[in-house]
């Protein structure tokens, strides 16, 4: 069973929501970029649609858990974009802070490896 530090999860959720507008802009631009494979575009578009959907706003009313689904969706979609498009293309479209981009890279890497998720949770 994986045990996560609740304070670390809350802090991570706050960081994610602080750069949410930058993330939406990046996802929108990636979907329009001809260099990005179609499969990665579909996943990015699905993540974007979920994040801005009214149904997602309802789940966000649940403290912590409501934000965790956003974190998981964003991290998964971003990981697929890193694999499909490459980090340089994503960085080109990122308008937020370097810290925000590194948080996305870290979250997507942690999702790619259960051992990585455990290491991140213990930090």
TrEMBL record:
It is a multi-pass membrane protein. The keyword tRNA processing does not apply. InterPro entries: DUF1232. Residues 40-76 form the DUF1232 domain. It is found in: Endomembrane system. Its main location: membrane. Keywords: Membrane, Transmembrane, Transmembrane helix. One of its GO terms (cellular component) is endomembrane system. Coiled coil: none annotated. This is DUF1232 domain-containing protein.
């Amino acid at each position: 069973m994986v045990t996560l530090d609740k304070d670390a999860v809350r802090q991570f959720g706050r960081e994610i929501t602080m750069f949410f507008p930058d993330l939406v802009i990046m996802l929108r631009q990636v979907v329009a970029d001809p260099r990005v494979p179609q499969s990665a575009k579909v996943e990015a578009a699905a993540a974007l649609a979920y994040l801005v959907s009214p149904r997602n706003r309802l789940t966000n009313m649940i403290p912590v858990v409501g934000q965790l689904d956003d974190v998981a969706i964003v991290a998964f979609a971003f990981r697929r974009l890193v694999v499909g498009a490459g980090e340089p293309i994503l960085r080109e479209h990122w308008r937020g802070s370097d810290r925000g981009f590194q948080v996305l890279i870290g979250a997507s890497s942690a999702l790619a490896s259960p051992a990585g998720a455990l290491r991140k949770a213990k930090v």
